[in-house]
């Protein structure tokens, strides 16, 4: 089996490589693709095949993917910038004859109101139209996205945002990456979509209480209005476009768009997702 990973030099890609190696995939059977030459050199030192990739160059990407059986496409590109490179990747994979395309999408991508999901939905549609047998891993939220909140708790004893009572069913990147490794190395996943999320949905009052236990010091959560949050972000030096995006994202989360506890992730990886408190301990 030959497996290529686009986005191999990122955090999720690194965890996916570790998960594949843990499942006894030979390093030489993994082709790590990315743009970070230093990180690619590290991976080459572990015995992986590596190559830089320019997704704007469809022909070169297709040549690089020739002979690859399975491709893990980690959702490259920032918000509003991801669809074109992903479309190019799908075209290149078609040309190269890739037999299985695994894409890291967003939770409930076809139906969610989550501001981040529109390009994921569009990417899924491009992949489906290509005819390449595919699996959609609709990843929920990463627990690591909230390390900055933990640092605020550690430094100031206060966490503040406009999410309020909204719940988030997070899991670690390692858990999501392990699911990708399972799908890439076991049969029966082509044509399926998995709604992946953590086993437990928490809110920020609970997050603060957990942080307080881990830090052994008081931590308070302050629920802000959207207007107050925007003022704080502006005072911190963020531009209006970033503030607007963050406000919309937090409103989505407050509405429960990331609260689903589907059980798909734990089922795929064969064990519970890492609890919030355990992840916090790794941040100490």
Automatic annotation (TrEMBL):
This is NAD(P)-dependent oxidoreductase. Residues 7-187 form the NAD(P)-binding domain. It comes from the Bacteria. PANTHER family: NMRA-LIKE DOMAIN-CONTAINING PROTEIN, QUINONE OXIDOREDUCTASE 2. Transmembrane segments: none annotated. Pfam families: NAD_binding_10.
């Amino acid at each position: 089996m030959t497996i290529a990973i686009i986005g191999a030099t990122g955090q999720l890609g690194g965890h996916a490589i570790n998960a594949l190696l843990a499942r006894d995939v030979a390093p030489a059977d993994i082709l790590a693709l990315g743009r970070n030459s230093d990180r690619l050199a590290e991976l080459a030192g572990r015995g992986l095949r590596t190559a830089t990739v320019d997704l704007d160059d469809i022909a070169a990407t297709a040549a690089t993917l020739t002979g690859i059986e399975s491709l893990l496409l980690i959702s490259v590109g920032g918000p509003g910038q991801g669809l074109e490179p992903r479309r190019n990747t799908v075209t290149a994979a078609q040309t190269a004859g890739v037999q299985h395309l695994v894409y890291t999408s967003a939770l409930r991508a076809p139906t969610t109101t989550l501001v981040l999901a529109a390009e994921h939905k569009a990417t899924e549609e491009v992949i489906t139209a290509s005819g390449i047998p595919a699996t959609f891993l609709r990843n929920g939220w990463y627990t690591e996205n909230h390390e900055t909140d933990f640092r605020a708790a550690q430094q100031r004893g206060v966490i503040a945002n406009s999410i309020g009572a909204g719940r988030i069913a997070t899991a670690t990147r390692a858990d999501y990456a392990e699911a990708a490794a399972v799908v890439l190395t076991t049969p029966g996943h082509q044509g399926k979509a998995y709604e992946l999320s953590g086993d437990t949905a928490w809110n920020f009052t609970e997050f603060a209480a957990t942080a307080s236990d881990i830090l052994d010091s008081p931590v308070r959560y302050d629920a802000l209005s959207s207007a107050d949050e925007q003022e704080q972000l502006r005072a911190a030096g963020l531009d209006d476009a970033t503030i607007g995006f963050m406000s919309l994202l937090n409103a989505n989360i407050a509405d429960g768009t990331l609260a689903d506890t589907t059980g798909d992730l734990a089922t795929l990886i064969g064990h519970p997702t890492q609890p919030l408190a355990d992840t916090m301990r790794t941040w100490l």
